[in-house]
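hi! just following up on the protien thing from before. the input was this:
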Amino acid sequence: MPKPTKSTRPKGWRKAEIIDAAAQCFMERGYHATSVDDVANRMNATKGRIYHHYATKTDLFFDVHREGMARLFAAIAPVLEDTSLGPRNRLIGLLQAHARAMMDHHTFETVVAQGVQVHRFDQTTEDQRQTMRDLISTRDDFESIFKTALQQAVDAGQVAPCDTSVTVKVLLGGLQWSLFWYRPKPRETAADRADLADKMVAPLIHGLTAPD
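and the predicted 3d structure came back as:
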């Protein structure tokens, strides 16, 4: 396959390359053990190329986190847009889409899991503290989508009554745990990951089943 030329590369491809390389480094080494040198070495580039776009490693980490969250929102969007789904099936669809995204974007979602916890107690600038608040708000918005779906299923009598806030944290936390045990297999397909996602969601939904 011919190498893309400058004219055929999408706008923003330079930053996208940096974010992708940084995600790999943060996943493998963790935030604190990763340096800008590590990211530059992975790209076979100079630190100057990275500093052209990012003033600090923290700013780069934040962009990796934003990209990871954007991919999660994109993964569940088709379910939200499907008006044919009833409340219970919408909840199932959201959980399955989230589970697949954790596998499809394993690198980025591992960094999201590190997320704000990495920086919550770090000494940061006011701008960085505001960025942390924004990231937390985005995560809360994502969680709220599942709370709404769960409450609608409860109201429809399709799911047993529960504390929606606590339950959603348990549901999403259970799926997020796959970051620690899931590893892509050779020749694994999207269908394989979808099947695994179904198996991950099934026991969670069974535990929510409303009594007859």
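The chain has a mean pLDDT of 88.
The first helix runs from residue 13 to 29.
cheers
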